[in-house]
Amino acid sequence: MKKRVLAVVALALVMSMALTACGTGAKESEGPFKVALVYIGPPGDLGWTYEHDRGRKAVEAEFGDDVETTYIESVEEGPDAARVIRQYAQEGYDMIFATSFGYMDPMFEVAEEFPDVIFEHCSGYKTLDNMGTYFGRIYQPRYLAGLVAGSMTEVNNIGYVAAFPIPEVIRGINAFTLGVRDANPEATVTVVWTNTWYDPVKEREAAIALLDAGVDIVTQHQDTTEPQKAAQERGALSIGYDSDMRAFVGDTVLTSPMWNWETYYIDTIRQAMDGKWETHQYWGGLSDGVVKLAEFSPKVPQDVRDLVADAQKAIIDDDDIFCGPINAQDGSVLVAEGACMDDAGKLSMMVFVEGVVGTIPAQ
Amino acid sequence: MIDTLALLTSILTITLRAGASLIYGAIGETYTERSGILNLGVEGMMLMGAVTAFATAYYSGSVWLGLLVAMGVGATLAALHAFLTVTMRANQVVSGLSITLFGTGLASFLGERLGPASNNFNLVGMVGPRFSPIEIPGLSEIPVLGAFFKQDLLTYALFLLVPLAWAYLYKTRNGLNLRAVGESPQTADAMGIDVIRTRYRYTIVGGMLVGLGGAHLSLAYAPGWSENITGGRGWIVIALVIFAMWNPARAVLGAVLFGGINAVQFRLQAGGATTIPSAYLNMLPYLVTIAVLIAMTWWEALSHRIGAPAALGTPYTREDK
Fold first, then answer.
1. Domain annotation covers residue B254
2. Closest C-alpha to A256, from A271, A270, A267, A246
3. How confident is the model at residue B290 (pLDDT cuts 50, 70, 90)?
4. How many domains would you assign to chain A?
5. Whether pLDDT at A18 is above 60
6. Which terminus in chain B has less CB density within 10 A, N or C?
7. In this predicted model, which residue has the larger pLDDT, A186 or A125?
8. CB neighbours of A312 closer than 8 A, spacing ≥ 6?
9. Are residues A237 and A332 in the same domain?
10. Distance from CA of B262 to the nearest CA of A (A)
11. In this structure, is residue B311 part of a structural domain?
């Protein structure tokens, strides 16, 4: 009996392998260009993954039957990600996007095994001939959002629910704080770390803690709308992130620094289809439209809108957000007058600027 | 000084509110485990309770109907667990884990299907009716203790439920029968207690309470549905039951401790104090539970008394010796 079961299992295995082999073999012929995206959260997060999925839908709308897209949501960073990416490569996908920092090493490992597949990793720094990186200078709209918050706070204290102590998050906090202080030199930004990208209840608790500590505007770096909803329930204002969160929460969300992947995804997929794709490290800004500031809530007065419009124009002409003089949190000079921080410095930023209240936990 | 009192009051307020869903879950799981059934499906049942409670309240406009449906869903999943483990005598760990996996998946599936057409049938981001905190005039102004009087109705209900759950378990004949079934089903059976029926009944009652715990999350604590809203609270409930040594009153202490950890650490951060790495705080409930387990084993050996229901996890049939 046992032997027969084993035989059946073995047969099934052989057959499934044969079928897989057929699948890849048949794929070589003409057919749609197959694109797969690996998401860290659910598209229903209304934040980070929601925006990537909006980009995917734009690709489908643009290319119609010429491109076939698929996605997998809520993939754990680490070995699980390598398995998922490898499976897509084996199934004959032509191009694979991975949308979280922690997918970098798994994707790198798989990309070395499949030189004919194109890999794109969001927010990392490792590249190969067939693996590029892409990200956006979200710190630019964050600075603009800081101008709004600094102008509108009445208690000169703004709360920031922060995700993980990594350069990406710290850069965002610093750019936001520089904006706040340019509009209002008296104001400070209080930071609370949650060490989560997506835990609605915890992120809400952190926002409530900040509101109890007396801030009147809350912003955040996670992928949920909970801090904004908590602020609204307390009669406080907020600044969104990732997507236009005003659409989901209401006018207490003054504006949101947001992602807009549509153009990038369409362009890079077209290059790949035309055989013109080359490895790259894409870091687009306001000028490319890959990041932007969402429309203002009616609560934002005209003079603040004008201030932001002027600053936005200046950033598009010449991005000088991290140009001196900038002091670090402890008062020492971070960027000297007349100097500007280069991209390498921005990408490895691990200190707060003056005006931030809070500490960066040791890693 | 005033500030310290205000800080303590706000910490206690949020701690009680954060602990409420854990207390509902812990009382439910305590009753289930007291009958000798280990249900590891809490996480999945809480999620199902949360999503169905919110969806029902969203469409009917009635939070009470939402509670009812969450209890029904919790009871149904628990009944499934009871059928598998009591009637079919399946492995309780496997059945419970399956219910967690199934419930987690089904809850996020429903979250993407049950919403209004205007939102692509997605329930995420919708605003519905909720249990708002109600401040009791006068009492809520007392420093620190006032925290007990600015809660939502579901948390107030616990002020009644916890003593009742404790008294039922330790002071009534039914409670004695329940404990007997969990300690020694053979003896209970010989005494004329229907072991099968008892196990079914308290597994289902436990499921109802766990469903209520989920409903508290989506109707009161973090109103609305977001995927994986429990964030592992179902597992904390299971640790909590052990921590409380299967005593519903002691579960309150644990729930306040475990539920309050984040509230306290975020407040320390917001106050400018140095941060404790959150990995340690996330470990804490489980570390404390391990410590309690070790202490309990030691105490059992010393006092010859038993903390855990002796028959926990073992199926029962009359023929077994």
1. yes
2. A246
3. confident
4. 2
5. no
6. C
7. A186
8. A144, A286, A293
9. yes
10. 7
11. no
ipTM over the 0.95 cut-off: no
Q: Quick one: A281 and A338 in the same domain?
A: no
Query: Looking at chain A, which residue has its C-alpha nearest residue B3?
Result: A213
Q: What is the DSSP string of A34-78?
A: EEEEE-SS-GGGSSHHHHHHHHHHHHHHHHGGGEEEEEE-SPPSS
Task: Indicate whether B21 belongs to any domain.
Answer: yes
Task: State both tokens at A271.
Answer: 């290059």
B201: domain range? 2-303
Nearest CA in chain B to A362: B277
Whether the pLDDT of residue B7 is over 60: the answer is yes
Q: Which two tokens stand for residue B166?
A: 């404790």
Q: With contacts defined as CB-CB under 8 Å, which chain A residues touch B221? A: 201
Question: Residue B221 and residue A206: Cβ atoms within 8 Å?
Answer: no
CA–CA gap between residue B104 and residue A106 (Å, rounded): 26
Q: Is A42 on the interface with B (CB under 8 A)?
A: yes
Count: domains in chain B: 1
pLDDT digits (tens, 9 = 90+) for B267-280: 878 876 666 666 77
Q: Looking at the domain assignment, is residue A15 inside a domain?
A: no
Give the CATH number for residue B228: 1.10.3470
- Report the C-alpha gap between A283 and A263 in whole angstroms: 13
In this predicted structure, the answer to whether residue A285 has a pLDDT above a threshold of 50 is yes
CATH number reported for the structural domain that contains residue A187 in this entry: 3.40.50.2300
Among chain B residues, the shortest Cα distance to A245 is held by B125
Which of chain B's residues have a Cβ under 8 Å away from the Cβ of A357? Answer: 272
* Residue B109, amino acid: F
How high is the pLDDT of residue B272? 66
CB atoms within 10 A of CB B316: 19
Same domain, A106 and A60: yes
Convert the pLDDT of each residue in B167-221 to its tens digit. 999 999 999 999 999 999 999 999 999 999 999 999 999 999 999 999 999 999 9
pLDDT at A187 over 90: yes
In this prediction the pTM is 0.82
Residue whose tokens read 């941060």 = B275
CB B65 within 8 A of CB B53: no
Report strand pairing: A326-327 vs A333-335. Answer: antiparallel
Residues A107 and A250 grouped into a single domain: no
Contacts of A74 in chain B (CB under 8 A): 227
Q: A81 and A147 share a domain?
A: no
| CA max distance for chain B | 67
For residues A146 and A278, membership in a common domain is answered with no
Confirm whether A344 is domain-assigned. yes
pLDDT confidence bin for A77, thresholds 50/70/90 = confident
Q: Are A222 and A196 in contact (CB under 8 A)?
A: yes
For chain B, give the percent of residues with pLDDT over 90.
54
The answer to whether the beta carbons of residues B29 and B237 sit under 8 Å apart is yes
Q: Are residues A48 and A86 in the same domain?
A: yes
